[in-house]
Amino acid sequence: xxxxxxxxxxxxxxxxxxxxxxxxxxxxxxxxxxxxxxxxxxxxxxxxxxxxxxxxxxxxxxxxxxxxxxxxxxxxxxxxxxxxxxxxxxxxxxxxxxxxxxxxxxxxxxxxxxxxxxxxxxxxxxxxxxxxxxxxxxxxxxxxxxxxxxxxxxxxxxxxxxxxxxxxxxxxxxxxxxxxxxxxxxxxxxxxxxxxxxxxxxxxxxxxxxxxxxxxxxxxxxxxxxxxxxxxxxxxxxxxxxxxxxxxxxxxxxxxxxxxxxxxxxxxxxx
Length: 271
Description:
- The chain is 37% helix and 20% strand.
- It is built from 11 helices and 9 strands.
- The strands form 2 sheets. The protein has a 7-stranded mixed β-sheet with strand order 5-4-3-6-7-9-8, with helices on both faces.
- The longest helix has 13 residues, at 210-222.
- The chain is globular.
- The protein starts with 10 loop residues before the first helix and ends with a strand.
């Protein structure tokens, strides 16, 4: 049986030129078609693989899932299909954490996803004692690969539940990239997110703060005196997030970066 014109095995698809890749991506609505084409052409090991990768991209899969990695603070973070893709705006959170982390800091990355935050903080600080946790098995598998260079350990489970008890009262920096999209708004997200990323990494409950409240309720028990909790939220959620942090016994403040559209809340355990 001969291959159909749209089949990845057809001659027209296996002989894609870089310009043809750009044309296909642009027709599919990819805003940065030239940049994406260069990445796909560079990643493909042969014409057939390039054709397959282009097909996956034009049918809506996130570029990072097609490539198998995402760039985050200069690192190449492994991102398997279905795993939450680290957002560039979240680099602002890591920058804030790096400025606060003491040498040899004990770091916990909750809701770690691919482990991008912990890996990037470890690279920025140079030496940390890193632990991470996520409820999604696929994310845990990615995170274990990504935090290996930092000597990190990754646990599968719900928030603090899988962490070693010995960490209680010892954590200097607690990163919690919790889901904060209200349930009713998940359907408004771009298809790349709502279709191809795990729902558990997106849905923050009725007002988007359900998971955050659980994190803040127990954070003080895990933080060392003077330790910090850092998480990302939306600008409109800041007043409620600050209230949740204060309710957990931490001293709250917020910082933002308009250029990156990033808002971070920081809670400090009183010394």
